[in-house]
Design a protein that fits this description.
By secondary structure, this protein is α/β, with parallel strands linked by helices. The protein contains four helices and five strands, in the order E-E-H-E-H-E-H-E-H.
Length: 146
């Protein structure tokens, strides 16, 4: 199975505020974040598509990034290397990155030693809340994989 990706922007508005046609939400605000979703497999064959999607996110004006891996059925070694590089680059730009995903993502992170440096959540809403409420800062640790 190949890799598909989608990008959306979310913002943490006051829970009581209602959007009206005159007051459209902006894509970037102090409490906004980008959700880059993936489904399928991240492997050698899909590596170029994975990198292209990640690069698009870093080129845009974002305050935080949620990588939604909940639709992935395989996350291979090449994905770990590319993710490490992406998190390092985002950290250098002061952009926090969090992940959403299940065991197929968290287990490889644990095995290669990245788990302490990348927060993983079960759902996008929890990940977004961590970003918008100042609970997560950019990674300042550059990873090394032996």
């Amino acid at each position: 199975m190949g890799l598909t990706s989608s990008t959306s922007f979310r913002s943490a508005f006051e829970p009581t505020a209602e959007a009206t046609p005159e007051a459209r939400p902006r894509l970037v605000s102090p409490n906004s974040y980008c959700v880059q979703g993936f489904s399928g497999s991240v492997d050698r064959d899909s590596a170029a598509d994975f990198v292209a999607a990640l690069d698009r996110v870093l080129r845009g004006p974002v305050d935080g990034i949620v990588l939604d891996f909940s639709g992935l059925n395989f996350f291979g070694t090449v994905g770990l290397v590319l993710l490490r590089s992406f998190v390092d680059d985002a950290g250098k730009q002061g952009i926090p990155v969090v992940l959403v995903g299940g065991r197929s993502v968290t287990r490889p992170l644990e095995i290669c030693g990245m788990a302490p440096y990348v927060r993983v959540f079960d759902v996008i809403e929890d990940a977004g809340r961590a970003l918008t409420q100042g609970d997560t800062g950019p990674s300042t640790m550059e990873f090394t994989i032996a």
